[in-house]
Amino acid sequence: MAASSVSTPAVPALARIEPRLLGTAAVGGLLGGLVMFFLMAGYNASTGMGFLTILNVCFAAWVFRGTAMPATHGMPMHHKATAMGMHHETMSMHHAMGTVTMMNEPLSASHVIVGGLLHLAMSAFAGVAFAVVLAVLIRAGLRMLATPAGYVAAATAGGALLYVVMMYGFAPLWNTEIVNFTPRVPFFLSHLLFGAAVGGWMYWRLGEAGEGIRMTADRPRLGGAH
């Protein structure tokens, strides 16, 4: 019985895939999603696109297809061919027209609510995915990921990978509004901050320091029972 009580803490809490880890990761994903939203919303507001545009147009477009029409929609084929020959000029004009389109998009309560709920759900899911992947890597022998710097750095790298998967994998197939109208640099930075927030929250709640505090807090009660 004593042996079993000693063997359980041998595996770090960050490497044990159990309800406690999953729940903490979901909360971390929600916190990271809020960080991502406020960064993007603040950037959009500072450029005149509107504070809620990221929810009203981009995130809502996962459900409401055609929330904002691409700037090149309806362009004749010979104009598109000409634009391909002037790639940089076309991309600059496309981004400018996309900004105007987002600014002129009417604010819809249903779009904002659905976009917000979808963003939070996807953020929670991503947080859980990050925690599970890192738990598997720690159990596989990468114990450096169980350190504060290692865990947060790995989660931040996961945020960068999430950006690549989102922008160049899922979004072009199901949500072209994000591809067409989202500014790349702030969106990439927001994903890095998302990963860092998830990693920081997870290690604060389940890292070795937190486990040590809980173990020392339980010792007086065990000693008193003896």
Structure in words:
With 226 residues, this protein is mainly alpha-helical. The protein is 77% helix and 0% strand. It has 10 helices and no strands. Helix 3 packs across helix 6 and helix 6 (109-139) crosses helix 7 (148-174). It is elongated and about 55 Å long. The two termini are 16 Å apart.
Summarize the structure.
This protein is mostly helical. The chain has helices spanning 2-7, 19-46, 53-59, 77-85, 87-104, 109-139, 148-174, 176-181, 184-206, 208-225.
- In N-to-C order, the SSE pattern is HHHHHHHHHH
Q: On the 0-100 scale, what is the average pLDDT?
A: 76
Shape descriptor reads: elongated
Distance between the termini: 16 Å
Low-confidence runs (pLDDT<50, min 5 residues)?
A: 1-8, 67-104, 212-219
Please tally the helical runs, counting DSSP H or I stretches of 4 or more residues.
10
Proportion of strand residues: under 5%
* Major sheet description: none
| Strand runs, count | 0
Structural class comes to mainly alpha
The residue fraction in helices comes out at over 70%
Radius of gyration over all CA atoms, rounded = 22 Å
